[in-house]
Write a structure and sequence with these properties.
- The protein has 3 helices and no strands.
- By secondary structure, the chain is mainly α.
- It has one domain.
- It is globular, with a radius of gyration of 13 Å.
- Bound molecules: heme C.
Length: 95
């Protein structure tokens, strides 16, 4: 799969992500969908690998969940998604 857009798109969840997260695949998948529907309203996908795990858990994701008006279950799903996504390799930028 390839994309023509310059922006790094949120990576879709794959089965191998069970090795990256204690969350279930359905929960990670929910996090992906919520991310696409809510987070993308304000800014493009920001690679979570550029942020520390402790900052994401303690600071960034609580703030972004409030901005997105997520309920507790959706916040937990997006947090699990983001923490798993930050462990996968980032595609090279397209030239
Ligand atoms: C209402 C608009 C809005 C929504 C919705 C939103 N963001 Fe943001 N986001 C911002 C703004 C503005 C900033 C930069 C300033 C700040 O940190 O508040 C930002 C910054 C960030 C950063 C960088 C933080 C940093 O310290 O540099 C990340 C990562 C991020 N957002 C992820 C998300 C995720 C994941 C979601 C969905 C849960 C989300 N955002 C939803 C507006 C939004």
């Amino acid at each position: 799969m390839s994309s023509c857009g310059p922006a790094y798109q949120a990576p879709p969840v794959e089965k191998r992500w069970t090795a990256l997260s204690k969350a279930s695949i359905p929960q990670l998948q929910r996090g992906y969908v919520v991310h696409q529907e809510k987070c993308a309203k304000c800014h493009p996908y920001l690679n979570p690998a550029n942020y520390g795990e402790a900052d994401l858990i303690g600071d960034i994701m609580p703030a972004m969940s409030r901005k997105s008006k997520l309920d507790a279950a959706d916040s937990a799903a997006v947090l699990a998604y983001v923490l798993a996504a930050r462990k996968i390799p980032v595609p090279e930028p397209q030239r």
